[in-house]
Specification:
A 5-stranded mixed beta sheet has the order 2-9-8-4-5, with no helix packed on it. The protein folds into 2 domains: 92 residues, Immunoglobulin-like (Sandwich), CATH 2.60.40; 30 residues, no CATH class. Helix content is 0%, strand content 55%. It has 128 residues and is mainly beta. This is Ig-like domain-containing protein. It is found in: Cytoplasm. Pfam families: I-set (PF07679). It comes from Octopus bimaculoides (California two-spotted octopus).
Length: 128
């Protein structure tokens, strides 16, 4: 079997977005395909699905991407004539919100030089 369209390089996406990896294969007999994440067979769930389309096109779709999805993904095709693989690296960027707070004397808990960094409902205060 062989790839007509391979996975290539690296894909960068923002956390909570979706990503789709497509490859196209050909071979006789028709090859089977397996997807791997960091060299382990990829487990499918409500967020991660595989599609088989026309003309040997196969797609891996990951919805609501999280930092845990950051990895090397590989599709491996195989038939009784042999096997072949293609890989891509998924990089997940976290969208951070940085809030600079200037406080008045009435706000005793926070001084005017405090910086608050809010990252996905976890916050911390760094004193300067």
């Amino acid at each position: 079997p062989e790839f007509v369209q391979r996975l290539t390089g690296e894909e960068s996406v923002l956390e909570n977005s979706s990503v789709r990896f497509e490859c196209r294969v050909k071979g006789f007999p028709k090859p089977t395909m397996k997807w791997y994440k960091d060299e382990e067979i990829l487990e499918l769930d409500e967020r991660i699905s595989v599609e088989s389309l026309e003309q040997g096109t196969h797609a891996l779709v990951i919805a609501d991407v999280t930092k845990k999805d950051e990895a090397t993904y590989r599709c491996r095709i195989e038939n009784n004539e042999g096997s072949s693989s293609s890989t891509i690296y998924l990089s997940v960027k976290v969208d951070r919100i940085i809030v600079v707070v200037t406080a008045t004397a009435a706000a005793a808990a926070i001084s005017s030089s405090d910086i608050c960094c809010i990252d996905h409902c976890r916050s911390f205060i760094q004193r300067r």
